[in-house]
Amino acid sequence: MNKKVAKEKAVDRQSVNVREPQSWRSQEIGWFIPFWNEQRRKYQARLPALLWLTTEQEHELKFRQADYGVEVVRQMVLNAMQSDFLNCRTGKHARNDLDFLLSDKFFPRVAQGRYNDLKTEERPKTAEELRRETAEAYRAQQEARRAEARRIEEEERERQRARRQREYEEWLRQRPSAADLKKILGDNYLLDK
Fold first, then answer.
1. Distance from the first to the final alpha carbon of the chain
2. With helix as H, strand as E and coil as C, how does 41-89 read?
């Protein structure tokens, strides 16, 4: 938006009489509160229900309708109600109130669907998601290395057990029997007697 248009909007907003009769509300924005609450129930949104609009919200809504049209305002409400981010369902904090949605900066973004939920393969990964995936991959790699080290250590223990068993069996084979001891030592081979 260029400076001239912004300046004209500021002048228009200053010239709005806050004590305007209530009739313009029902004609221009009377549809908004029922539509908002109906969509909120339909999509089970966490955005707050509206009982009334503040004077500032009424003026912002009136200006958005004048600037963009009623259909764009309706589309903004639909996008806001369906967005997991704007409804704080993603675990990330979002400022999710009507003042935010009607602001000059964020109204066009919400209306254009910038906060709409995209399928995982359609949207780029956030830095937090990349960080989490990297940490998970690193943990998995470390766990795989530890598992491999445990496996190698267990195989080495098993080899040592098998070697000791073979040595013991060899020792048993080479050990002189009682008959051999009797031949070598005579009758005195039993020291206990």
1. 115
2. HHHCCCCCCCCCCCHHHHHHHHHHHHHHCHHHHHHHHHHHHHCCCCCCC
Domain boundaries, the chain: 3-111, 127-189
Please list, in sequence order, all residues whose beta carbon lies within 8 angstroms of the beta carbon of residue 76, skipping any fewer than 6 positions away.
64, 101, 107, 110, 111
pLDDT at 159: 95
How far apart are alpha carbons 172 and 6 in whole angstroms? 101
d(CA 193, CA 187): 10
Report which of residues 21 and 142 the model is more confident about: 142
Q: Note the pLDDT of residue 24.
A: 43
